[in-house]
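User: Structure with KG4, tokens only please.
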Amino acid sequence: MILAIETSCDDTCAAVVSGGHVASNVISSQAASHAAFGGVVPEVAARHHLELANPIVEAALAEAGITLDDLDAVAVTRGPGLIGALLVGVSTAKALAAARGLPMVEVDHLHGHVAANFLEPDPLEPPFLCLIASGGHTLLASVTGKEGFETLGQTLDDAAGEALDKAARVLGLGYPGGPEIERLAASGDPGAFAFPVAMARDPGLDFSFSGLKTALVYAARDLGDEGVEERRADLAASYQAAVVGQLTAKLERALDCGEWPAMALGGGVAANGPLRDRVSEICAARGVRLKLVAPELCTDNAAMIGAAAEALERTPHPLYLAWDARV
Ligand code: KG4
Ligand code: ZN
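Assistant:
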């Protein structure tokens, strides 16, 4: 029975995971607090985590129907993420582990996104290829064991989610931008604007999204405020198509380069409907099994951190060791 805590960005999350089963998965989004700024303000995020950490942990335990006495370990995201935000989660986990004499497991956030695929229902066993696309990262991972992954290619500049968030800002939409763009794109023409699909012809499996963002800024400038207003849905649809186009071009190349029995997605952008549809077509055409986790396990959550922790070694927390030695 693992209590997992995730506070790397703007979601305060705690979950109880046991043998791939999610007993509870509590997420408190701070998106509304950051919306006015068009992006996450690190100091605001850290202060919210501080207020919410204890109540969210209590909620996760209550929802799982357990108490601290039932826990075998505490897992926490150690990074990458916003340092002040991470510090709150790590301090909370350390305090719990030290007070209860529990081992602590420090988890890499990206390993967590991969590990969301190990959870019930229908857990995926390695080996598989995994595309992680979030607000901070975009990478293709080779997953041959549950304890980690190898990066095959990654973005050279912006992440896919960041590109969507910035585009939303240019189009005068809310934060986070990905879901807003997806909603608006549904009524637009994806072929209306020919946005560049970067690096499609370059060899390798790396990504680049900064040129796409610049192309949108220029298109918006040429259209003027009224033009953008009129063509907003077409701009969103064409931009989303370029993001999905680049992600899937590299994913197809990676599938062609290896013998992958299965493929999975992770990270907030993996919640995107058109991306999920296109990847489903690609995998069906190749006879590759595709695992699509529920959208709430794609965006940041603590259940995925618990899933990663289940595959990692449990080390007694140093603070606890020091206490033990003194006693
Ligand atoms: O994994 P995540 O919750 O946090 C990070 O680790 O960054 O990902 C957040 C990102 C944001 O950029 C957000 O705009 C994007 O995921 N996102 C989406 C969708 N839902 C969230 N992008 C496209 N379509 C969505 N439905
Ligand atoms: Zn994430």
